[in-house]
Each structure stands twice: as structure tokens, then as C-alpha cells.
Amino acid sequence: SQQNNNSKSNDNFAVDLLMFQSPVINRNFYGFSADFKYYLKDKWGTGLNFAIANKRINLDYSYDLVEPDITYLSVGWLNQYDIVQNEKVRVGVNLNNGIAFFNLRDRTQTELVWDEFEGHSEVPIVQARNVFYVIEPGITASFLLFTPKNFSPIYLTTQAKYRQAIGNPKFAQTNDYSNYFLGVGISIIGPFD
């Protein structure tokens, strides 16, 4: 969209909230992902990406775990260029690069922790942690669903990307963490303007 130099654009910010599926160690992980983008130019956005998922598994990788699971957390810097951008449709190619953590835990071995949201709670103890540098090229497509009165437009958003993990794991192999990522959810264009 063309910006008027005398007024601030109403679509400088975009928030994508997605549910995703991605194979890790030959198991389908389902989780939540969020992209927060600021458009520096009409079609060029940059920002942060977060993703989180958890999966119970049946392998203990020689750690003698009774109820093993893996948590996945990633944080990255996202850059996106919209090749199509109008009131009804947005299609962008993007590159996310950041860091991903895969924690191997035993649900029967817990520790007491405190956080400001839940107070004291018991959480599984991390037995091993893999940390990877990740590069994720992808494509995001958003389609206008509706524009609520006195609010920003709401889009149906789909995302496909490939996660390339780089690093030395403590459990499994590096290529077990490189795979596709498919997401679907909503986007809000201009929520903070």
C-alpha cells in the first residue's frame, strides 16, 4: 500500500499467531508460533519470531528416563519481503535466523520452581539440552477474513518454511532437527498503530 508522507501508515506492524506442525526426531510436534514484524518500508518487514512445542517420546537416549519428553523453544530474527501486498492478500518470502533449544526431560523427575505467573510449581528436570543455530527460509500467505469496527484487519494466515539446524547435539543427530514447518492461524495488521 502507498503511504501518505503526512500521516503514519496504519499497517507498519503485523502480528502472526499460528499453530504449527513440524517433525523433530521423526515425530510430529504441534505447537504455537508468533511473529512480530515492523515494516520499515512498504513491503519490507523485520522483527522477532518465537515458537514453542512439547512432545512425549518413547526414547530415552541412554539417560534412563521413565517418561521422556522433549520441549522445543526457538527465538529468531525475522526478515520478510512481501511480493504481493494489498487490502485482501499478502504473500511474503521470509528468512528467520536464530537459536533453537530442544530439552530432553523426564516427567517423573521434577523440581520446584517459582515464576511470577503461576507462583510455585513442579516442572520436569532437563536431563540434556541441544542448542542449535537455525536458519528458516519460508513463505507466508495471508487472506483478509474481516475488519472489525474500530479495530485492525484480521487475516487467515498460512506459513511454510524449512528449518535447517546447525550444531552438535547431545542426543539424536543434527539432521533429526532439520525439517519442514507448517503453520496456520491469524494475522493482525496494524494492531499498535
Shape: elongated
Please state how the strands of the largest beta sheet are arranged side by side: 1-2-3-4-5-6-7-8
Distance between the termini: 15 Å
Secondary-structure content class: mainly beta
**Cα-atom radius of gyration:** 19 Å
Report mean pLDDT, rounded to a whole number. 92
- Number of H/I helices: 0
Secondary-structure element order, N to C:
EEEEEEEE
Helix content: under 10%
Largest sheet: 8 strands, antiparallel, barrel
Q: Find the count of extended strands (DSSP E, 2+ residues).
A: 8
* Model regions low in confidence, pLDDT < 50 over at least 5 residues: 1-9
Strand content: over 45%
Oligomer status: single chain
Task: Give structural notes.
The structure is a single chain. Strands 1-2-3-4-5-6-7-8 form an 8-stranded antiparallel β-barrel. Residues 1-9 have low confidence and may be disordered. Helices cover 0% and strands 70% of the residues. The protein starts with 12 loop residues before the first strand and ends with a strand. The protein is built from no helices and 8 strands. By secondary structure, the protein is mostly beta strands.
